[in-house]
Every structure is written in structure tokens, then in C-alpha cells.
Input
Amino acid sequence: MQTVVFETDNAIFYFESSDAIFHLKYYSEQKVREAIKLSKTISSSSSEVINIESNYFGFIVLDLIKAGKGHVYCKTCKETYDPDQLTPIPFGFGKSPFEVNLKQKGGIFRRFFKKRKRICGSGGQRYLCPNGHELIGMITWTGIFQIFSKERR
Output
């Protein structure tokens, strides 16, 4: 069985090649060049261990961990962990643009009486080992938001 290996400064991630190809398939179908290239590299390799050096694969690592696939070796702890042992931590404005954390208070009626303001933001996801060491963290989205601020009189 082939193993795909991805290394960061703090960790080494191990995945079955079939899981990596499965998760790359969606992005390949969306015509993401880097995903197509990685799929071909993994599929055509005859080696038992396939080392991936593409930063783009970090996004796939986040997907694979979320799906409960693979294992990760924490370089600080010198221990190997399963994905269910890792702690997901959103950062910035949150892990997804659909779950933006603006920390806005107030009801719907207050919003009608406030000025609108646009701000730019980004967010992402990171994973920590059980001992709190950051293994991987990536900004996964950026956007412009319309928020409501108090009107000055």
C-alpha cells in the first residue's frame, strides 16, 4: 500500500494514497491545476512512499484530517496521533466564510438603524496535538464583509 507523506516544520502527516487521490478528485474536477498535478504525481508513482512538497497539499491535509484519515507525527512530542486526537482551532474570522465570527451583538431591529461598514477579513483552520503543539495551520479563505456599526450623531 502506498503512503503519501507531507511534512511541515512541526509535524509529518501520513495518508494512504487512495485517500489522498479521493480528496484531490473534487479539486481536479474543478480544474485546479495544482490538484490535477498532484493527482497525476500520486497515481503514476510506483514508490511505496510518496513525499509531497507542494504547499497546496496543506489544504488537502486539512480535508483529510477533518475526514478522519491518516496519522500525524508531532515533532515536538515525538508521538504519532490519529486525527480524532487532534484539536481543531479556527483562527482569524473563523474556519469558513459561512461561519464568520464578527462578535456582533444586537437584534435585527438594531441593524436597520445602523450604518453599514465593509471590512476585509480572512480565516482558516489549524490543528493542535493533544499536548497543544500546532501541527498545521492555514488561511483557507478571504473576503469582504458588510457589518453594521453604530451611527454617530
